[in-house]
Amino acid sequence: MQQDKRYSLMTEHELRQEISKLQEKARKAEQMGMVNEFAVLERKAVMAKAYLLDPDWFKPGQIYELDGAPGTFFKIDYLNGVFAWGYRLNGDGKDEALPISMLKIDIEIN
Fold it and tell me: Thinking of the domain 7-50, which architecture would CATH place it in?
């Protein structure tokens, strides 16, 4: 069995290839009605995308809209690696960690 390489150890090129592969697998899973498989693959792609971003682009105390969830906002308390810890505005107030790739920023990553 092949050991997968950690996203944190991948080059930018490897990450982009992995994201592309995961998105293609997710598309196929969605077409086949495999909802759980689709959700897992989408989440993996979001995690891989987080490693393409610079955590310094995100600032504690700032509020960011969640990508793919218009009108849902997240306030960062602190960052730990590629995870933003904080809470959703108008949510239940519980702390949670989100990959920084789930937060909308003005910088476009291709």
Answer: Orthogonal Bundle (1.10)
